[in-house]
Design goal:
Layout (H helix, E strand, L loop, with lengths): L2 H25 L22 E6 L5 H17 L2 E6 L4 H13 L5 E4 L8 H9 L3 E6 L11 E4 L2 H18 L4 E8 L5 H16 L4 E9 L5 H14 L6 E4 L2 H13 L9 E6 L2 H8 L5 E4 L5 H12 L8 E3 L4 E3 L4 H8 L5
Parallel strand pairs: 1-2, 1-3, 3-4, 4-5, 5-11, 6-7, 6-8, 8-9, 9-10
Antiparallel strand pairs: 10-12
Helix pairs in contact: 3-4, 5-6, 7-8, 9-11
Bound molecules: alpha-L-arabinofuranose.
């Protein structure tokens, strides 16, 4: 046999084996576990995450801690983080959504929502563009098939904890009936809507003190300037009638405290104050006794959000649609020394 004929036979034999292998693959489907096409079989690691993070704004100590959590964790894990401060405007959030949808590098969009509604169109567009969406901090009212998961607090439960803490403070002050005012956050935000609802439910079931909400006003900026203006107006409108103040975050509770002090009243004695967040500033007010209780709202959510995003990119369908944060509560009655020791262990 000539050398060239030997090579031709060998080539034909190889071709036969390849054709046989191909037809055998076609005839016998791969098991489901091997089914994904090679293009979809990429396993993502944290370093592959390119996250477009749409933050509400920079309105509070809580928010600063939330933003730091994302920036620090992204840096530690080698994640690329693109960041938008929406200045608490939903139109800025929609623009940012569209920018991240069109950005070919971005594979994950994280939203801290300014409002509960208004995102349906961009959520649909993100899904169509193959971007994984994770909602953090505030829940939204949208079809849950449009996002991968929501990681944030149970604001209704926080409102109920405020009601119980307020009732206990008023009871300890000798009250059996009490007038409360509420200084709320932005009325469109789930944090304000649900805290207000939970508080309303909580005061109904607190039997030792009959609490009545005298008035409720929202501060869209969640900040001390707006909070102080609201409390000043309430003190003028209801002289001598306010027994308790529920500030929807520490800034608003502290604004109420400062306004009461400016009017010659003693917070913790003449009026009971309860806030939400448990930031370092909130702790300082607990320590000096002006704030009676502070209900924790956990801002350090980035590690959970990034873990979930990674699972989502890798096709994990077992993640639940809402992972509520684990949160505590703190009281002036714990005493300055104990509170200082706790504050020293906290990151915000
Ligand atoms: O959504 C969480 C709330 O938003 C915090 O309580 C408040 O401080 C923040 O700005």
């Amino acid at each position: 046999m000539t050398k060239s004929r030997t090579l031709r036979i060998a080539a034909a034999a190889v071709l036969t084996v390849v054709v046989a292998a191909c037809s055998s693959t076609a005839a016998t489907p791969a098991p489901a576990s091997q089914a994904p096409a090679t293009a979809a079989a990429k396993t993502y690691t944290m370093k592959d995450l390119v996250v477009g993070f749409i933050q509400t704004g920079s309105e509070s100590g809580w928010r600063a801690a939330n933003t730091s959590s994302f920036k620090e964790t992204a840096q530690q894990q080698g994640i690329t983080l693109k960041f938008t401060d929406s200045q608490n405007k939903i139109e800025n959030q929609i623009t940012a959504f569209n920018t991240y949808i069109q950005d070919p590098q971005v594979n994950v969009i994280v939203l801290a929502a300014v409002a509960t509604t208004g995102y349906d169109d961009v959520l649909k567009a993100a899904k169509a563009a193959g971007k994984l969406v994770v909602i953090e901090d505030r829940r939204i009212d949208a079809d849950s098939s449009l996002y991968y998961t929501y990681i944030g607090s149970d604001f209704d439960a926080e409102g109920q904890k405020v009601a119980k803490a307020m009732g206990d403070l008023l009871k300890a002050a000798g009250k059996t009936t009490a007038n409360i005012i509420e200084i709320g956050g932005d009325q469109a935000a789930s944090a304000a809507i649900d805290r207000h609802k939970g508080f309303g439910e909580g005061i109904q079931t607190y039997s030792d003190v009959k609490m009545t909400v005298l008035d409720y006003q929202n501060a869209p900026g969640w900040d001390q300037v707006q909070g102080k203006a609201i409390m000043d107006a309430f003190l003028k409108k209801y002289p001598g009638k306010i027994d308790g103040v529920f500030g929807h975050n520490d800034e608003l509770a502290i604004a109420g405290i400062q306004s009461a002090q400016a009017a010659g009243l003693k917070p913790g004695k003449d009026i009971q104050f309860v806030g939400v967040d448990a930031t370092a500033d909130g702790f300082k007010s607990l320590i000096d006794g002006t704030l009676g209780a502070d209900i924790e709202c956990n801002p350090l959510l980035a590690p959970q959000v990034f873990d979930a995003a990674l699972k989502g990119l890798n096709g994990d369908t077992s993640t639940v649609k809402w992972v509520p944060s684990q949160e505590s509560q703190f009281f002036a009655a714990q005493g300055a020394d104990a509170l200082k020791a706790i504050l020293a262990t906290r990151k915000y």
